[in-house]
Each structure stands twice: as C-alpha cells, then as structure tokens.
What does this fold into?
Amino acid sequence: MGRAPRITTGVIALGLWATGAALAAPDCPPTHQTPPAPAEYAALRNPLPASRAHLAAGKKLYRSDANCIACHGKRGDGTGVLAARLTPPPRDFTCPPVGAPVADGQLFWVIRNGSADTAMPPHPQLSDAQIWQLVLHVRQFRRQDAPSPQGPAR
Ligand code: HEC
It folds into this structure.
C-alpha cells in the first residue's frame, strides 16, 4: 500500500493535466460537426432586429438567466468554467465558419433542442423571443474578419 497509490495519483494528475492542456487549445475550426436542423427550422429567419434592447436582453440571458457563459465563456470563445471537462468542447462563437455561415434557424434549433451526445443542453424553458435574442447576442462574438452574420439566402 506504501507506494502504489502515490504513483496512481501521479499518473491521474498527469492525465488530467494533459487533457486540460489539449482542450485549452482553441477549437477552431470545430472538431465536432453539429447535426443539421430539420428543414422546418433551417428555413427560419430571426424576426427580431438587432436593436439595443434585444441585444441587451440576449446578453443578460447568456450571462445570468440561461447561464450559457458557464460553457461558452464571457467572450464567447468556448472557455467557460466547465469547458475543460467537455468533449466535444463548447462552440467557440468567435471562430469564423469554415463553409457557409451558420443559418439563424440552425442556431435557434440547437439552443432549443440541444446537440445530441454533447454537453449542449436543450432549453425548453426559453420562449421563442428569448432564443432569438440569444441568437443576436451569440452572433456579436463573431470575429471582424468573419463572413456576413446573416446566414445564407437571407
Ligand atoms: C453545459 C455546457 C453548455 C451550456 C450551459 C451551453 N452550451 Fe452551447 N454548446 C455546448 C457544446 C459542448 C456545444 C457543441 C455541440 C456540438 O458540437 O454539436 C455547444 C454548441 C452550441 C451552439 C452551436 C453553434 C453552431 O455553430 O452550430 C450554439 C448556438 C450554442 N451552443 C448556444 C448556447 C446558448 C445560447 C446557451 C445558453 C442558453 C448554451 N449554448 C449553453 C455546451 C454548452
């Protein structure tokens, strides 16, 4: 009993360190592809204008009421306090999409229903308007060099 537990602890600590280091790297482009939303969602367009009031409401939901910040982080770069434990990691909203920009309806669907087999939870408690406010807020994190935030065929 003298030595073995120590060695085990050391190995586990090293393992955790290595995992943490690997996940701390930016996940851009994303390592996991979120499944596409059903057609009836994919066609949706955000009915809300990017007004100050809607953006402020989205920010409040993100930071406190809906607690997106715990995973996606204050800057939306996927570095929230829970992020290091998650595989696939939370989406880095600052990462420019590789192909076509993500459509409004896709973002709405993921926020409402979550992403299967990942830590992204469903949010049945949020109203449609609240989800659209979150979509407006999440799009604000996109880096300046990224393509148009409006999604295709808007
Ligand atoms: C417990 C951690 C966790 C919380 C809390 C969380 N997310 Fe996520 N989110 C994830 C993970 C993990 C993914 C990546 C899913 C995937 O790869 O399919 C993700 C993906 C997403 C995506 C998909 C982006 C894309 O490009 O397809 C959106 C949008 C999103 N989250 C928004 C939100 C919003 C808004 C909230 C708060 C209402 C939230 N998330 C709360 C973990 C979380």
